[in-house]
Amino acid sequence: MKAIEVFDVCHTRYRGLREWLADTRGAVRSVKLDTPSEGGYQWRPSRARACEYVADFERIGRHALRRPEWKGRLRLFEAYFLQGAEYRRAIGIVGVAEGTFNYWYQEVKRSLGSEYSRTGLYPPGQYFKHS
After folding, report:
1. Is 2 helix (H, G, I), strand (E, B) or coil?
2. What letters, b where the CB count within 10 A reaches 16 and e where it falls short, cover 54-64?
3. What angle do helix axes 98-119 and 3-23 make, rounded to 10 degrees?
4. Fewest CB atoms less than 10 Å from the CB: which of 40, 73, 81, 98?
5. 8 Å CB contact between 121 and 6
6. 125 three-state secondary structure
7. Residue 95 and residue 75: Cα distance in Å, rounded?
8. What is the pLDDT of residues 82-121, one digit of tens each?
9. Taking the domains of the chain in order of start, what are their residue ranges?
10. What are phi and psi for residue 50, nearest 5 degrees?
């Protein structure tokens, strides 16, 4: 699998777990027993393991982009991929032209995809088997 695809898989899992963790912080949801769940059964790891995955995704990403000359790419990673800023807003936060942003976007995904694969964050199924 290509590094960019590896990144996409890990980022999708990261976003899903972050949303799930945010939803489980004391929110009480009503249950409709007469209708099936919308998404069907969805496996979720233990809360502690989900927190570890989220933290590892962020830590490994920041570590891989720590080179001084990649300061802008790190800002892109934090604004766009971690904080979820909208595309145009992220370009403004990073402070570069759209073409540069797009080039860095691809570089970040390629670099971090390789790193996530090397460090065991990918594939996520394997990550969660190691408890």
Report:
1. coil
2. bebbbebbeeb
3. 80
4. 40
5. no
6. helix
7. 9
8. 999 999 999 999 999 999 999 999 999 999 999 999 999 9
9. 3-23+44-129
10. -65, -40
